[in-house]
User: Fold this.
Amino acid sequence: MSNQGYSIQIQGLADLQRAFKEYPKIAAPRVANAINKALAILQKSATDDVLQFKSPRGLRTGYLQASWGMPGIGLELATPIKLAGRIWSNARYALFVHEGTSPHVITVVRKRVLANKKTGQIFGRRVMLPGSKPNRFLPRIIERGEGEITQSFRQALQNIMGDIAARTNLR
Assistant:
């Protein structure tokens, strides 16, 4: 047997290695963009048919839906430095709608009695509320946007690979 060695030279290997060392700088803006697209998809997915509120549209303020993903009060975008984004509703009652409430008592604090000003109905100093069933709208919002979000991240990966290839002589 011969002790002969073989060598293979890969053209552009040094460029490819250099591009992979720069990978975080190349990938981070693309990933941040995909995260922000995902947030936009989740924001537009919060429609009446997905939220499935029990009360008719005319009896609701619409604030939970309107504040869902609202820039400045319900949205935190990703950046290439911080690859995380957040979306939420600024409505204080959003968690109670999503998780439901157990039966509880409401007691007068500042007034003499609890009353409905519109109808003039008086309830008294204490009212026992039956609680509410959860309306778990978050999984429905995520499910509605899942396909589009997946496609957004696939596109980001394709763009990252294209950016790396563009920095090499391996086109």
Notes: The beta strands are 75-76, 86-87, 104-107, 114-116, 121-124, 126-129. The mean pLDDT is 89. Residues 46 and 65 are 7 Å apart (CA to CA).
